[in-house]
Amino acid sequence: MPPSIKGGEETSLCQHLGGEWNTPFASPFSKGRGLRCGIVALLSPAMPLLDKLERRFGFLAVPGLIRIVIVFTALVWGLMWLNPNFGSALDLDPARIRQGEVWRLVTYIFIPRGIGTSGAMQPLWVILFLWFLWFIGEGLEQAWGAFRLTLYFIVGMIGTTVAAFFFGARFSNSMLYASLFFAFARFYPDQVIYLFFILPAKIKWIAWVSAAFLLLGFVVNTNSYRMALIAAMANYLIFFGPEMIHDARHRGEVSARRKRYAQSSRTEAEPLHKCAVCGATELSDPNLDFRVASDGEEYCMAHLPKTATPTR
């Protein structure tokens, strides 16, 4: 069921990268309290290539792409409500495409999924689904810009088509929408939504649960399914894979440095002072005073050599 969104964003792209807030943008879920970040993309090893592509092919960007998808999805749902068999003429069917029905390469993205086909409450769920998709699209376009979102969407469509033609996958547009959601979770991990309008949950928690189900399917299914899943999620892997690898390496390096520091540093159970005669320390008796004698050894005051000149 579609979730409802809590107003305001708790963590944003700006906070993640140290950017500053810019012009506010309107959102049906944040009630106009969302903010647009001055930083428009996550910094990762893939960014220089995307920068080059944007400079050369930026004119191909489709501003408001997700809004266009939502409009056509709403139209298709209306036609499917009048004729339930209408969706079968639009779905991604490799056999039909080979027979010349090439429009299916595009029209499948407009088929509403996971919102049922009947019931008095269906229009409400359709509206909430499209509303949530609008929210995700707005957030991604604010973070990435129109070109990168367009490129991400097109690569996702290509991956879904490859999965269908070469591996027999029947994902349709489900993985494409899932990749949009995972991208949104990367940019806004602490955005809170209300499941069933009651249970608050952060986007990153839902993303982790969804990823766990995908990983389970990857493990238990056939090699054909695994390849299809990789192909369908190629856009996410291409855009965020290098950054994820970089972050994993960085965390490993930080962990290694912390271990080295912990091994070389003194623990609380290790004394700083110790008498060379009796072995007493400031831990065994906090009232003891210690001095270093001329022979370089440290003594408690009771065993300090009488002829030695103590030094502080």
Would you give an account of this structure?
The chain is mainly alpha-helical and 312 residues long. A hairpin with a 5-residue loop joins strand 6 (290-292) and strand 7. 52% of the residues lie in helices and 7% in strands. Helix 3 (65-82) packs antiparallel against helix 6. The longest helix is centred in the C-terminal third of the chain and has 31 residues, at 234-264. It has 11 helices and 7 strands.
Give short descriptive properties of this protein:
312 residues, 7 strands, three-stranded antiparallel β-sheet, disordered N terminus, 52% helix, mainly alpha
The gross shape turns out to be: elongated
Spatial strand order of the main sheet: 1-4-5
By DSSP (H or I, 4+ residues per run), the number of helices equals 11
Strand content: 5-15%
| N-to-C series of helices and strands | EHEEHHHHHHHEEHHHEE
Mean pLDDT: 78
Report the oligomer. single chain
Helix share, percent? 40-55%
Low-confidence blocks of residues: 1-43
C-alpha Rg (nearest Å): 30 Å
Backbone structural class: mainly alpha
Largest sheet: 3 strands, antiparallel
The number of strands is 7
Distance between the termini: 73 Å
Draw up the topology in text:
Elements (H helix, E strand, L loop, with lengths): L3 E2 L7 H5 L3 E4 L10 E3 L9 H11 L7 H18 L11 H5 L5 H4 L14 H23 L1 H22 L6 H14 L4 E4 L3 E4 H18 L2 H10 L1 H31 L25 E3 L5 E3 L12
Helix pairs in contact: 3-6, 6-7, 6-8, 7-8, 7-10, 7-11, 9-10
